[in-house]
Specification:
- By secondary structure, this protein is an alpha+beta fold.
- Helix content is 47%, strand content 10%.
- It has helices at residues 9-22, 45-52, 56-63, 72-81, 86-100, 116-124, 144-148, 163-169, 173-176, 180-197, 202-214, 216-224, 272-283, 288-297, and strands at 130-133, 139-142, 234-239, 243-253, 261-266.
- It has a five-stranded antiparallel β-sheet with strand order 2-1-5-4-3.
- α2 packs across α3 (56-63) and α2 crosses α4 (72-81).
Length: 305
């Protein structure tokens, strides 16, 4: 089982190269495989080194984390040899840059404080389910539908509410989300990408370490080291309270709060999906602060003479 942490930037670079190498078949890069059993999945080290035009010894040092300053030309050659897409190629560059300047002190995690006007934005988005999450997918703020959409998530203490933890560890997640297999691949790819450039960040290592221990599915996907996941605009939920609803999802980075993202779901008015969304907002429990605000806004009754 892989560790959630690494001993340095070169180690993370080597892990990424090894994962891509072992998942690249010889026929994908124009190599002809001779008869006999291949003990190595994917490409052998010497095959990749030859394709990239470098010595085997140099490549082995990179994969073992001992070579931490590869040139841009070397990185580009490896990207071509492994047929990396643009996002994977950029991730390779970021890992190499981090390996060259690696410092053992982990950076502080981003702020978890949600500014008051952003909480107001969540309220004004009703009945559309909406929430704000951290870079490690902790749920930081939400409106009633944003929490209720993930059935059973409200049963967890607020400090444990994390969308990655939910989809891998909550028993309702697999029945709630019919395309669970595709969703989790994208989730792990996002966390892998973040952890590749900040592998010692406490907020990421804590979550990844927990999921590696508790979820074999997560551990298997983590070993693949995919950093690009397909993200669907529309998601279908089989909700135990309001039935089946298909919503369009959108997420965006929030200005002035690095690492925080706003997620919101919408449905076309007049459709059954919109009706289900309205029902979800109506039956979702109001957060205590919302109930208090409404009581304060109600006119006070005059005492009887």
């Amino acid at each position: 089982m892989a560790s959630a942490q690494s001993s340095g930037g070169g180690t993370e670079l080597g892990q990424f190269l090894r994962a891509r190498r072992t998942q690249t078949r010889p026929d994908q890069v124009g190599l002809t495989v001779g008869p006999g059993l291949r003990r190595t999945p994917g490409l052998r080290r010497e095959e990749l080194a030859t394709l990239a035009g470098m010595s085997i010894d140099y490549y082995v040092r990179m994969e073992r984390g001992k070579e931490t300053r590869p040139s841009p030309a070397v990185l580009d050659a490896l990207a071509r040899a492994l047929h990396l897409d643009d996002a994977e190629h950029q991730h390779l560059r970021e890992l190499a840059a981090r390996a060259a300047r690696y410092a053992p002190e982990p950076p502080p995690p981003p702020s978890r404080t949600v500014r008051p006007h952003l909480k107001l934005v969540l309220e004004t988005l009703r009945p559309n389910p909406a929430y704000i999450i951290s870079r490690s997918m902790d749920l930081l703020a939400w409106n009633p539908g944003g929490l209720a959409l993930y059935a059973g998530l409200a049963d967890w203490p607020a400090i444990q509410r994390n969308l990655a933890r939910y989809i891998f560890l909550h028993p309702t997640a697999r029945t709630l989300i019919p395309d669970w297999d595709e969703l989790v691949r994208g989730c792990v790819a996002r966390l892998r990408s973040l952890a590749g450039t900040a592998p010692d960040a406490p907020d990421l290592t804590h979550l990844v370490g927990e999921l590696l221990l508790k979820s074999p599915d997560f551990a298997k996907l983590w070993e693949r080291y995919d950093v690009v996941g397909r993200k669907r605009i529309q998601k279908t939920f089989h909700h135990p309270q309001v039935g089946v609803l298909t919503l369009s999802g959108q997420s965006m980075n929030l200005e002035g709060t690095p690492g925080q993202r706003l997620g919101v779901y919408t449905a076309e008015p007049g459709t059954p999906d919109h009706d289900a969304m309205l029902l979800l907002d109506a039956i979702a429990p109001e957060p205590a602060r919302h109930r208090d605000m409404k009581r304060e806004q109600q006119p006070h009754s005059q005492p009887r003479p």
